[in-house]
Amino acid sequence: MDYRDIMFEAADGVALITLNRPHRLNAFTLETSDEIFDALHRAETDDSVRAVIITGAGRAFSAGADIAILAEFGGRADASSAEEIRERRKSHSFSNLLALRKPVIAAINGPCVGMAFTLAVYCDIRIAAQSARMGLAFVRRGLTPEDGVNWVLPRLVGQGRALELQITGRLIDAREALAIGLVNHLVPDGQALPKAREIAADIARNCAPFAVSEGKRLAYEGLSCDLETALEHCSETTSRMHMREDFKEGVQAFAEHRPPRFTGR
Fold first, then answer.
1. Same domain flag for 185 and 220
2. 101 close to 158: Cβ distance less than 8 angstroms
3. 260 Ramachandran zone, left/alpha/beta (phi>0; psi -120 to 50)
4. What's the average model confidence in pLDDT over 196-204?
5. Domain carrying residue 157
6. What is the pLDDT of residue 61?
7. Residue 146 sits in the same domain as residue 131
C-alpha cells in the first residue's frame, strides 16, 4: 500500500508510524485511519518488530479530523452519513490497538486533539513534549467522543477528570496531563520522539516479545474482570511462560551477566 497521509519505517526492532500532513497539522482525512491500520498490521505481522511508535510530522501530533471532512458530513447530516461513519469506525476503531500483541508508544510532539487524542489514549505508553496541548474537542463540534473513550479514559485519569475533559472539551497542557496520569513522561520540546525511541529500543533489546504481548493482554483483560478471574488468567499464562525457550534464555542470560537473546519462542 502506498501511503499518502503517513510514513512508515521499521528498523532495529522498532516500527515508526508518522502522521504526515504537517501543512494541515496532520489532521485526519478519511484515508488516514486506513493507512494507520495498514501500517499497524505490517508491524504486527513482522516478527522483527518488537515495539511501535506513533508520532506526527512537523509541530503537531494531530489536530484531529480535518475540518473539510467534518464539513462534508455535517452538511449531509442524514441517516446515510451517520451509518457510513458508524461502519467505518467499527473496522477502524482505535480501541483495536488494545488487541495488538506489540506495545504502542505515542510520541506526542505537539497539539493532540479529537481523533488524535483518542488514538493516543489507546496507545500503551504516552510521552508528551512540554508545549503539547491535548483534549477531546467533540462537544465543541456538536459530537460525543468516539471509539469507547468513555470506557478507557476514566481508567487512566479517574471518572471525575474524564467527565470534565469529555463534557467541556477543554484542552490541557502537558504538565496537567502528566499530573492526572494521562501521559507517562513529560519531556522538553523536540525530545518526545527520542524518548519514545529510547523506550522502544529497550523493549526490543531486553524484553521477551511473547512475555511483553502476554503482559499487555493480561493488563487489559484485568480492566474488565474480577480478581478471581484475573488470578486464574495470570496463573495459566505464567505456567505457559515457564515452558518457553525465552524463559530459559532470560534466566541463563541473567546468570551469565550478558544481554538476553530472545527469539520469541
1. no
2. no
3. beta
4. 97
5. 6-204
6. 98
7. yes
